[in-house]
Specification:
By secondary structure, the chain is an alpha+beta fold. It contains 13 helices and 10 strands. It has 2 domains: 117 residues, no CATH class; 232 residues, Aminoglycoside phosphotransferase (APH), C-terminal lobe (Aminoglycoside 3'-phosphotransferase, Chain: A, domain 2, Alpha-Beta Complex).
């Protein structure tokens, strides 16, 4: 990731950029590290670690000064390159709207070679991807629910998904700062548990506000228990649900919409998928049974045979609670019956109250 690198900024890069900005040749007089006292090459090196640079230059005989600022990575909401990009974007679009505030002159991109480019005219960032053929896995689950049975290919697909997750989760990453951030996002992010509980209407009839608050508080208690477990930080997809999995043919699939970064907790991916076997079965039979129980069991047995992560069963609860809040949401799934939603809330409360998830007896969490 280019934005994570300490790119080698050089004086000529600064001069080239300012010449393009002013549309005429400029001459650098001095580059000084603000707050550190370093000058020249030492200041440029220090810039890689987040210290602002005071740049003095001559423009058509006039002496001018600007400050080049870089947001440093830290544990206060700036762990990801996207956090730091977002902060620069916000500063550029807000500084000049407050009286007496220092002016923001440009929004600057630095590439992997240290070259500087203006992106001040950008109004929005867009993403271009290739087109992925295939049919969402959700269509398989709908068919299985309607037919009341699964075929051998359905079983092979569950095995394929489990083996894939076990393989990617075997890749670990040492970054305690990022581990704590991922736990914090699970509980407090707008896409996490608090964002979901905030999305429920104040007059929600199926679950009381006090019960939603209790789920939040239980999740935060779990967060404190999980904080020492940074060794679990692994390669993840981050949103491994049936609409992001496209089967091309047989058990071959392609994925969409990886979310929330490269590294996280494996239980995030596992819970995201297996709760859907429960979800589709609840709508048919009010419990996990029949073909969905077969796929659920196949998945767990395959995953644990490939990756003997027994510790996951002790940490998975808050991720299950989060996904249950999504599936029970009147915004995301407005046509669900109250009975199904009740059972999803019971499941969330039940797994959060248990110290170790008993995957073989999942129906016990529904009552």
């Amino acid at each position: 990731m280019l934005a994570e690198m300490n790119s080698a900024l050089k004086e000529r890069h600064v001069a080239d950029y300012l010449s393009r900005l002013t549309q005429r040749p400029i001459q650098i007089e001095q580059i000084v590290e603000l707050g550190g006292g370093s000058e020249g090459a030492a200041a440029l090196k220090g810039f890689g670690y987040g210290r602002p640079l005071r740049i003095t230059y001559l423009d058509d005989g006039q002496r001018k000064e600007v400050v080049l600022r870089r947001v440093n990575r830290n544990g206060f909401g700036r762990e990801y390159a996207s956090d730091r990009t977002g902060e620069v974007w916000r500063d550029f679009h807000t500084f000049n709207h407050l009286p007496r505030h220092v002016r923001a002159e440009d929004m600057v991109m630095m590439d992997e070679d240290g070259r500087l480019q203006s992106i001040a005219q950008a109004q929005e960032l867009l993403l271009l991807t290739n087109y992925a053929p295939g049919r969402p896995y959700a269509e398989d689950l709908v068919r299985i629910g309607e037919e009341g049975s699964c075929n051998p290919l359905d079983v092979e697909r569950a095995k394929s998904l489990a083996a894939y997750l076990a393989d990617i989760h075997a890749v670990k990453h040492d970054d305690p700062l990022l581990w704590r951030r991922r736990l914090r996002d699970l509980v407090g992010n707008g896409e996490g548990i608090m964002g979901l509980t905030d999305s429920y209407p104040a007059d929600e009839s199926v679950i009381a506000a006090a019960d939603l608050q209790a789920i939040e508080e239980a999740a935060n208690r779990r967060r404190w228990q999980l904080k020492p477990l940074a060794h679990r930080l692994s390669q993840v997809h981050g949103d491994f649900h049936p609409f992001n999995i496209l089967f091309v043919e047989e058990a071959d699939f392609i994925l969409l919409d990886r979310s929330r970064g490269m590294w996280g907790e494996p239980a995030d991916d596992v819970s995201c998928l297996v709760i859907n076997y429960l979800f589709f079965s609840l709508q048919q039979d009010g419990r996990l049974t029949g073909p969905f129980e077969e796929l659920y069991t196949t998945f767990w047995e395959t995953y644990l045979n490939h990756n003997a992560d027994e510790e996951m069963l002790s940490v998975i609860a808050p991720w299950f609670a989060w996904r249950a809040l999504v599936l029970a949401s009147p915004q995301w799934y407005p046509t669900l019956t109250d009975d199904t939603r009740h059972k999803l809330f019971n499941f969330a409360r039940g797994v959060m109250a248990d110290t170790r998830f008993n995957w073989q007896e999942i129906n016990l969490y529904l009552s």
